[in-house]
Structure formats: C-alpha cells, structure tokens
Write a structure and sequence with these properties.
Elements (H helix, E strand, L loop, with lengths): L1 H11 L2 H13 L5 H14 L4 H7 L5 H11 L5 H4 L4 H7 L3 H9 L2 E7 L2 E7 L6 H7 E2 L2 E2 L2 H19 L5 E4 L2 E4 L7 H11 L2
Antiparallel strand pairs: 1-2, 3-4, 5-6
Helix pairs in contact: 2-3, 3-5, 7-9
Length: 198
C-alpha cells in the first residue's frame, strides 16, 4: 500500500519540472524572487533532500541560496534583503518579517558617544558600519538604548583589557628580558628579532 502511494506521488509530482521552474524564476531577478521562494517551499516540502537536485541543475546555486529562497517563500525574509551583503541588511535579515518591513524604510536608533555624554542618531540600515550593526542588532531584535549603552561599555572594557595586558618581554640595551613565566609564539619571536635588529 505504501509503495503504491509513493508511486502515485512520483507520478503526480514532476520534481525536474519544478526545479526548472524555480531556476527560471530565480534567473528573472528580484521581481520573481518571491515566486521562486514559493516554488522552493513546494519543492522542499515535497522532498526535504531536493536542495541537492536544485544545486545539481544550476551550478551557480548553492544550498545556502536555496535556503534563502525557502525563507522568502515562507514569508520569513524580504526579497530585497536576500542578497544584500551590507552589515545593516545582514542584521535586519535575522529580525521577524514585520520588523524587516518596518526598518527597510524607517531609520534605526543608534546610540553614539558625544562630548556631552550620549545621543541617539536615526540611521538608514543601508548606511550602518559593521560595528554599528553589531551594536544595534541582537539575535532576532533591535537593542534598546540601554542595551546599546551596555554593549558600548562592554566593548570599551574589552579594548582597555587588551591595552593593559602586559607584554611578555621588554628590550633593553639590545637584550631581551622576559617576564616571569612568559611564553612566546612564532610571531612574537619574529617581532623581538625585528625590534633587536633595528
């Protein structure tokens, strides 16, 4: 009985045709990406292993691209953000679809340090730097002003900790003096040699 159902399913569903339709939609550009996403969902819902078939039929397609189209088709990702590699777009992609729609056009609040304390700038997501994007976006949400302030303090303390880490050696009078229990990497040894031979 089970074999009969599988045979009937194979006869009524033409995977090769669906894959070809999906690739054609993908190649028509962003206007058709929503359609391509819906087709990808149909294919994957029918056969969870079909990603390999899609990639085999279109060598330019990778599994991660197929999964992006699946997210578009399931209404989890805006087509306009799908292939945008700017830091802000990457952060926006992890938000719920309602927030993606909102902040695709609406600026996001960015807390900045000023001479008089802090201020909030409203910044277009497309203009965020990598560090600003990391400051604004947390997993699945936008950080509040308080959370951004805490994030900034944490980053500053990490920078201070690195700046105050004592060096494992000092050079005095052309000689290397090691701190107690110091260990060296090959890079540090090369740095010492460079400094001594100056």
């Amino acid at each position: 009985m089970k074999k009969n159902t599988q045979l009937q399913s194979v006869l009524t569903y033409d995977l090769q045709n669906e894959v070809a339709t999906f690739i054609a939609a993908y190649q028509r550009g962003m206007q058709a990406w929503e359609e391509a996403g819906k087709i990808a969902v149909r294919i994957i819902d029918h056969d969870p292993h079909a990603t390999e078939d899609i990639c085999a039929a279109c060598p330019a397609m990778t599994p991660s691209i197929v999964h992006i189209f699946e997210r578009i088709g399931r209404g989890l990702l805006l087509p306009s953000l799908a292939m945008d590699s700017t830091p802000g777009a990457r952060g926006l992609r992890d938000l719920p679809i309602s927030m993606q729609r909102r902040y695709e056009t609406e600026p996001v609040p960015l807390l900045i340090n000023t001479d008089n304390g802090t201020d909030v700038l409203l910044v277009d997501v497309k203009n965020l730097t990598r560090d600003q994007s990391r400051q604004i976006f947390a997993k699945g949400r936008i950080r509040s002003e308080g959370e951004q302030r805490a994030w900034m303090v944490e980053q500053e303390s990490k920078v201070r900790a690195v700046a105050h880490t004592p060096q494992a050696w000092t050079i005095k009078g052309g000689r290397v003096i090691f701190n107690k229990g110091a260990t060296l990497s090959a890079g540090e040894l090369a740095t010492i040699i460079t400094q001594i031979t100056k």
